[in-house]
Amino acid sequence: MCHLKKMEKNFYVTTPIYYVNGAPHVGSAYTTIAADVIARYKKTQGYNVYSLTGTDEHGQKVEETALLKGLTPQAWTDLMAPKFQEMWKLLNIENDDFIRTTEPRHKSAVVKILSTVYEKGDIYCGEYEGKYCVSCENFVPENQIVENKFCPDCGKELRVVKEESYFFKMSKYQDELLKHIDENPNFILPQSRRNEVINFIKQGLQDLSISRNTFTWGIPIEFAPGHITYVWFDALTNYLTAVGYENNLEKFDEFWNNSEVVHLLGKDIVRFHAIIWPCMLLSAGIKLPDKIVAHGWWTSEGEKMSKSKNNVVDPIEEVKKYGVDAFRFCLMREVNFGNDGDYSTKNIISRINNDLANDLGNLLNRTLGMYSKYFDGVIVEGKNEDEFTKNLYILFEETLIVVERSMEKLEFSKSMEAIWKFISRMNKYIDETMPWLLAKEESEKVKLGGVMNTLVEGLYKVAVLIYPYMPVKSQNIWDQLGVEKSIKNSLIEDIKEWNHFKKGDKLGVATVLFPRLEVLVEEAKNELEINENLKIENPTTIEKFGETKIEVVEIISVEKVEGADRLLKFKVKTGKEIRQIVSGIAKNYPEFKLLEGKKVLAVLNLPPVTLLGILSQGMILSTEDKKNGIKLVEISQEIKVGAKLK
Ligand SMILES: [Zn+2]
Predict the structure, then answer these.
(1) 324-518 CATH
(2) What average pLDDT does the structure give for the chain?
(3) What is the pLDDT of residue 531?
């Protein structure tokens, strides 16, 4: 194998090819949106990008289903594949290629990799007897079989299959693969999945049966007449097919050999991608992908999705309700990629109303409204060099750094958290600079222009940062700002300076970016019922509660405490003074600098204590649950410092 260094800025991202027997659902939509977001993001970073999705069309179950429908397997897959293509169109996915494993180009690629591995001496003939899951297309090892007959992954009953079979010498690559994983900490993400794979390999890899002769719907093996290719060996090869492995070596050089290669997938198929696939590539002498990134599962309103519970999230319905951009945004923002997440109507509505309608939509609306009122919507010359403006500039530079760092690990949610911190800071900037007061003084006109220009420049930048998630709304922001360009080809490099707008430029027409979803909130409220006979445990009294003085404080600065990796040292502004509070939450806030500027609740009448020699003058309130760990109780920016909790 070769460890080629990247020569150019090429980027290749894939989703799994989806199993054609089922319809696309929120899980496949999630992976595909994530792939689209990272592809669009890399383009804003100046990368030459290729993105791939497609359908997995071979295997026994497809053959059986087609038979039941009275169709040939090919006719059945021809009917199903377009359902995926239509869904990706609806979700505004800009894939460069859509591969179907029944295409001639893919069949030739599988023939090529099989013969390469065969000539290497890594395939031998043997006999396989085992318990096979038709649904997952997978032989299940004895120690994983549930109650002696059920599949551990899908729960269906296994079949005993005994057949002559060709085996791939996967065991031969065990040590080389472990070494690669060890040397490349980001090869399998997130960490939890990486550990799982390492443990699995260390138990010892077995050779893999890669041929079948009990059914015919698959790719024939040239050196093994009567056998077809095991469906996973077939399916995984699609990642090579699409970039020209078999028929376009120039393209293959561009997007495989000299490219960053990233596979996105659900956590259920990590082992196929992180064990079988790299072993196949090692044997065929092909460079390994750079990152294999697994995401978690979605539940619906806290419960597992199932047809019987009637709680399956249908992307088509969600897009109808909220619009495609809001749906894409919520999926990517709601959970950290890699973790499991819950799809809840209440959370979605709250995200749309708070993050999109309030924070972003209002900022745009207020800015355009003021520009129109003070300067008729025509850009003026301005100058403003106060601390507020300087701080905003600094925060923007920090935002770009956090975005880049998070996106390297596909931490979409963290990246958006940073973008929204900047958006909140812009809202605060309006409160700090108070343009309505500046507008009253003729002598402040230049400063007013400076403030207003900072706001339109900031919004111009925000549009580019959110473009990967919300391609339509980001263009809409540019339109409202009067920018006569397509946002599609914009580069992060071009938004580093605050100088896009020129004197005389005309701003566009202000419209509502995201309408608030009031009605739906009412509906959700009506569903709530209360228990009138509730028993209260450990009752307290209003008087006792009132003895605790809890107030809103603003976090001014956060620092790590040397020699105590659990502790963070906060400087907070209370209604009266600045206090220092030490809190043991460092593990939960690796990006603790993002807390600066946030408003939180603190208990202020506790006696001061000294923790590891550091004075602590209060306690910041937090919540703890299994999903999020410890989180500070954040208070809306509208609430003033010193407001009392009653
Ligand atoms: Zn199964």
Answers:
(1) 1.10.730.10
(2) 93
(3) 74
